[in-house]
Amino acid sequence: MRTVLGIDIGTTSVKAILVSPDGKIIDEVSAPHDLFSERSGWAEENANDWWNNSVRVVKELKSRAPDAFDAIECIGVTGMVPAIVMLDKDGVPIRKTIQQNDARSVEQIRRLTDEIDQDELYRLTGGYTNQQHVLPRMLWVKENEPENFSRLRWVLGSYDYIVYKLTGVLSVEMNWAVESGLFDIRKREWLTGQMTEYGFDPAWFPPANESMKTVGKVSDAAAKITGLKAGIPVIAGSADHVASTLSAGIIREGDLLIKFGGAGDILYCTEEIRTSPKLFFDYHIVPNAYLINGCMAASGSLVKWYLGDILGNYGGDALRELDEAASKLPPASDGLIILPYFLGEKTPIFDPEARGLMFGLTLSHTKAHIFRACLEAVIYGFKHHIDIIEEMGYNPQHIIATNGGSRSRFWCQIAADVLNREVRAYPSHPGSAMGVAFLAGMASGMFDSWEQIHLFLQDYRVFTPNPEAAKIYEKSYKIYRDLYRQTKPSCDAVARLY
Q1: How far apart are CA 430 and CA 15, in angstroms?
Q2: I need a surface site. Which of 95, 226, 300, 324 has the fewest CB within 10 A?
């Protein structure tokens, strides 16, 4: 038996998966962790929670599938980008991580936008200064937590931290570097001049490695803690949205992924390096392919907030009843439209001061209306991204849906209706963990063709648009787009209240 292990450091949980060369998922395990938002716009997590959960799920896999576990040939780790893990000289996190959807660095973004030649930055990195970039968020730490900043010696991403804990090797994967805004995407090198100008030591940033490169081996210390065999090769890994793209079989130009995670990702495969000021750019794992992509700060996390914080941990039968009630409501939720900017927004508006909005509320609206409007809001956000991709001259031909929301027939049908396109959903597909496991399989020689990813893509559902619903959504989507433009001055004013 031959197997590979994939570990996914997600927004809400850590997942581990064992994969065999015949297209079978032997087993998968997950463990939840918390997102902390102690102040408006903040998004933090505990890197030690990620490691503890990684140990937990790996040990559980060993207990559930010991023979397959003992046959692991290579390990890949994927995770959120660009989450920031700041380590001291001993490799210990000096504070909670600052997540990719954190929106605290508004003042720093304003200053950097004025101080840095934005056209030159776009030419080098494929993007303008925004809330996802590493520089403004680290500058916030420098200015607001000088004691923590003085202890800083290394900067890693989410999955890079787990690679470090497994191997003892400090490394960042190439797409963390790309997403950081501190990396030349054509020369593939750090922008060290920008780092030093703002008081950051370039030595804090480890080498940026290709996804499939073996960067280390499981150390004796990690083997003792996890139950893994010492010496198993560990690759640099992958950004979660890129791994999801591979695991959904998106390997050709024209393929597009909508990923229903805690944040929402939209990825379009192309064969050329092409950038947009409204979107992000990444290298695909597949050679000679690239990804034009967007990331909504709040997607599944918006739904989780409504069900948890507002309705009080709605789940089980109560959630099924809510889902059924919402499915019986008309498209556009009887005129209730939500802007999903509850954590500000990244692409395509790049506005950390944007705010969530419920528009059109009346006394006749129920919790089912709000639930449906939350689901619709996420798809409106997806459509906004597809509009931009089409404006670039591309024609998305195949739309694939993965991750948590793809398990909901109701949400997927809303997607087909709002987008007015066929959507193929993989409800049981494990997403990013599968992609990085397959990548580990390519690195170890367990797989020899990218086409073999289709061995794992047998369980899917196809959703076709309802013409009548699509007509209503076409009208409500225009209102959705207008709402942000009309309320932006008020959002800016609210951000300056305190």
Answers
A1: 9
A2: 324
